[in-house]
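Progress against Task 2.4 (sequence-to-structure conversion) is shown through the following example record, which the project officer requested during the mid-term review.
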Amino acid sequence: MPTVSGRSRPWTDHRRAVEGMAWKYRTGAPWRDVPERFGKWNSIYKRFNRWAEDSTWEQLLAVVQKQADAAVKIDWVVSIDSTIARVHQHGATLTRGTGGSTESQDSAGRAA
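Structure tokens generated for the chain above:
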């Protein structure tokens, strides 16, 4: 975790601040509604923003992923189900260009 640099006031506990950040994103509440038990909302926001700008979050994620991968706790297989992907409204009425007809045909090629 980052440490204080320069002659600034020491940070409050990182755990409380990160729990406040998690609470904010878990609930979807605005920053001002973060409960006081996590610390001052403005301090939590400033720390979150500072860590986002200096890539602290990316570094933390990389370390956690590396540790979990070494312990074989990550399954890197991803399955994407495209059945939920909706067609754009303008593409829904287009005819298919696959060479086949959309109507069923008899053996002579006439529409049934």
